TrEMBL record:
It comes from the Bacteria. It holds the Pfam family Glyco_hydro_1. This is Glycoside hydrolase family 1 protein. NCBIfam families: PRK09589.1 (NF007154), PRK09593.1 (NF007158), PRK09852.1 (NF007356). PROSITE patterns: GLYCOSYL_HYDROL_F1_2.
Length: 484
């Protein structure tokens, strides 16, 4: 009989996660070109961000400065090391390496910046986990090709991967091809994930002009690009571990009505498992082919695409998890919000200030659901609570609500490990406060480290340790055993 695991395994990778476009800043420094995120205005949880194809001096673009990691990376990495990080998830800004996306030669100054970042991480024995494309395609690719709607981006992405794989082959082991690749199964992903200019008034979340055919064609191009990158990476360094990244949309039937159950299964399949079936198994699943037939979606494929997908299967599966939603075959129900998608309110759950339902047990369910399907190592690479933090008169920030959220989710990860799930890493989202991808706010904070900046870009950018900073340090030091 095998020994049962009663907790987090030895060598478990604890850490935090970020994205270049949301915290790096330096948007026009070091030879960097404009990314899609650089043309997004600010917003709030009640107003949508807008895309302005030409920068407007009367608009505020929060991603331009982010939290200035570009100049403060040594200070921030030192703070991560103080917490005891074993791994740090970051992304490379594609436009910092290839300013226009289709350039023939890379930007050496951009490559040098990441040389320095990886050197600093190595100084503290922190393993980098690098996302190659995290909602930050060069904006020139949107203007000149309409983003991933054009298959030529596959070759541009391949060239980009070839450069960074060779440059960082001795300092980066873990790679993710596309962040939340399944966002393209929803209208939200049109611009954020697909770099496709949406029709209409430029509002990021405007679904009035959704083009489902275009989204799924763009998604196919990303599947091909990911598969080719995986094969290339393994050829450059056989020790590379290259994974997929999915925004896991945990969906429950609202009632025991069989129609609700079937609808929840359809959402799970199309929103979650379509992408990971292609990236893990190397082929389109039957339910997707049926969906395409019934919705008049015709995916244009080239002759060798099936072979490319089969030869480019990922080594591990990663996902973001923040909340869960319910679905019902009947309309006119109370809606809730979430990461990428929306759903119906669950009467058994509380919600955050941004109306995201808090469901730790849904994480355990999701881990089992994913692992039972694929049987490959898993990482939870985004999980956290966006909230308004207050600095007390003595300078302390008592974010007990964040500690409670993370504690309960870590408990459920431990239960999933005991269930038999091969979970190898956990990186909380926004380990340092950063710009919200969906709303452009700073007010919506996730970090263990407070950054003095507001929604209008005012502030000193000084870093302050929150109560959760010391709590997470203890969690890591005890390998998840001390959670109080």
């Amino acid at each position: 009989m095998q020994h049962l695991i009663n907790g987090f395994p030895e060598g478990f990778l604890w850490g935090g996660a970020t994205a270049a476009n949301q915290f790096e800043g330096g948007y026009d420094e070091g030879g960097k070109g404009l990314s899609g995120a650089d043309v997004l205005t600010g917003g709030t949880h009640t107003t949508s961000r807008r895309i302005t194809p030409v920068l407007d001096q009367n608009e505020y673009y929060p991603n331009h400065e982010g939290i200035d990691f570009y100049h403060r990376y040594k200070e921030d990495i030192k703070l991560f090391a103080e917490m005891g990080f074993k791994v740090f998830r970051l992304s490379i800004a594609w436009a910092r390496i290839f300013p226009n996306g289709d350039d023939k030669e890379p930007n050496e100054e951009g490559l040098k910046f990441y040389d320095d970042v990886f050197k600093e991480l190595k100084k503290y024995d922190i393993e980098p986990l690098v996302t190659i494309s995290h909602y930050e395609a060069p904006f020139s690719l949107t203007k000149n090709y309409n983003g991933w709607a054009d298959r030529r981006l596959v070759d541009f992405f391949y060239r980009y991967c070839e450069v960074i794989f060779n440059r960082y082959k001795d300092v980066v082991k873990y790679w993710l091809t596309f962040n939340e690749i399944n966002c393209l199964t929803t209208p939200f992903g049109t611009f954020m994930g697909g770099a496709i200019m949406p029709k209409g008034n430029g509002e990021l979340n405007n679904i009035q002009f959704d083009d489902e055919q275009l989204r799924f064609q763009a998604l196919h191009h990303q599947f091909i690009a990911s598969a080719k990158a995986v094969k290339l990476g393994h050829e450059i360094n056989k020790d590379f571990k290259i994974g997929c990244m999915v925004a896991y949309m945990c969906t429950y039937p609202l009632t025991c009505n069989p129609d609700d159950l079937l609808l929840a299964q359809e959402k799970d399949n199309m929103n979650n498992f379509l992408c990971s079936d292609v990236q893990v198994r190397g082929e389109y699943p039957g339910f997707a082919k049926r969906y395409f037939r019934e919705h008049n979606i015709n995916i244009i494929m080239e002759e060798n695409d099936d072979k490319i997908l089969k030869e480019g299967c990922v080594d591990f599966y990663t996902f973001s998890y923040y909340s869960s939603n319910c679905v019902s075959a009947e309309g006119n129900k109370d809606k809730s919000k979430g990461n990428v998608s929306t759903g119906l309110k669950n009467p058994y759950l509380k919600a955050s200030a941004w109306d995201w339902q808090i469901d730790p047990k849904g994480l355990r369910w999701s881990l089992n659901n994913i692992y039972n399907r694929y049987r490959i190592p898993l990482m939870v690479v985004e999980n956290g609570l966006g909230a308004v933090d207050t600095i007390e008169e003595d300078g302390s920030i008592n974010d007990d609500y964040r500690i409670e959220y993370l504690r309960e989710h870590i408990k459920q990860m431990k239960e999933a490990i005991i269930d038999g799930v091969d979970l190898i890493a956990y990186t909380t989202w926004g380990c340092i406060d950063l710009v919200s991808a969906g709303t452009g706010e700073m007010k919506k904070r996730y970090g263990f480290i407070y950054v003095d900046k507001d929604n209008e870009g005012k502030g000193t950018l000084n870093r302050l340790k929150k109560k959760s900073f010391y709590w997470y340090k203890k969690v890591i030091a005890t390998n998840g055993e001390e959670l109080d």
